[in-house]
Design brief:
Elements lengths: L10 E4 L2 E5 L14 E3 L3 E8 L5 E7 L6 H11 L13 E2 L6 H6 L7 E4 L6 H6 L1 H5 L3 H20 L12 E3 L6 E3 L40 H13 L3 H4 L21 H13 L1 H12 L9 H12 L1
Antiparallel strand pairs: 1-2, 2-4, 3-4, 4-5, 5-7, 6-7, 8-9
Helix pairs in contact: 5-6, 5-10, 6-9, 8-9
């Protein structure tokens, strides 16, 4: 048994395929400086197929998040690649059953996930990029909101929920017409055991009155989804961006959520009304909701957007 401390020159063997770790782009000659990004639940390494040279992401979950449920969710997602927002494929979960020698050598890799590495901005990346924000158009807003609402609707209609909808978990296509959902390992799936730590969501997208299950429930995406769709629908308007600090990662700060009367809240409502009064109604309903179940469902958001824009 060896602690998993990857370095340049270390390779992983998965069946007949070998992967190597990629150097950090800013420190290519430092053998300890591999390409890794740390998130709240995992360390994400960039690895390369030594034969094809294709790049992949190796997501090594931190101990509290490793569980057999990860393998079951990965299997489910592999079967749902035709759904909007879920087309990142292949997804591979490293288990003791499938890769016994590797997991015996590196126990930390049990339930690690391998997916293709995709170079694309996230929604939060656009929010933080002033130049990109200035060039964000109403047409892009329309396309992104339609694509995002469709992806969330497809989850909810199947009884599923991402459970941590946030700008950092939305990958944007180059033309801003499609999205990919990231960090799906904690999603709500009926019949699959709950994670040890139930999702409370991301600051800036959290309902003020979450129940004991947090966002890990069938309605788990409704409030966060409403806020995300509102961001996408209104960020093109300079009057809205003027109310948000340059370094802010969300449209509303955590203390602003579900509080009426702020300049940002008023600017957002004005823009939604100008697009279509029904969108303002959905936003107001989510904003005033006492719990997640009182928020408009994602089908209503999606159908309203399609009726408005198509």
């Amino acid at each position: 048994m060896v602690a998993f401390q990857p370095f340049l020159g270390l390779f992983l063997r998965l069946g007949a395929t070998y992967f190597e770790f990629v150097p950090h782009p800013l420190l290519p000659k430092d053998k300890d400086a591999i390409f890794v990004v740390e998130g709240g639940e995992a360390l994400i390494y960039q690895i390369r197929n030594m034969d094809t040279k294709d790049l992949y992401a190796l997501k090594v979950l931190k101990p509290p998040y490793r569980a057999e449920r990860i393998a079951r969710i990965t299997e489910l997602l592999t079967q749902q690649v035709d759904l909007p927002g879920l087309s990142i494929n292949p997804r591979l979960c490293l288990t003791q059953a499938n890769y016994p020698e590797l997991v015996r050598t590196f126990p930390e890799l049990e339930y690690a996930i391998i997916t293709p590495w995709i170079e694309a901005p996230t929604w939060v990346g656009l929010l933080l990029d002033q130049a990109a924000s200035i060039h964000y158009t109403f047409e892009q807003a329309r396309s992104l909101a339609l694509a995002t609402s469709t992806a969330l609707w497809n989850l909810e209609t199947r009884g599923l929920a991402h459970a941590d909808i946030a700008g950092s978990n939305i990958l944007l296509s180059p033309d801003r017409k499609q999205i990919q959902l990231l960090d799906l390992e904690g999603m709500y799936v009926p019949g699959i055991p709950a994670p040890k730590k139930l999702s409370q969501g991301t600051p800036g997208y959290q309902h003020r009155c979450l129940g004991p299950q947090g966002q890990w429930c069938p309605e788990g995406d409704r409030f966060a989804g409403a806020i995300l769709l509102t961001e996408m629908l209104t960020w093109w308007e300079p009057r809205v961006r003027a109310q948000v600090a340059n370094e802010a990662e969300t449209l509303f700060g955590p203390d602003e959520l579900q509080v009426m009367g702020s300049p940002c809240w008023q600017a957002v409502r004005d823009v939604l009304w100008s697009i279509h009064p029904d969108l303002l109604y959905l936003f107001d309903q989510a904003w005033a909701s006492a719990n997640l179940a009182e928020c408009p469902d994602l089908a209503t958001w999606s159908m309203t957007l399609f009726t408005t824009f198509l």
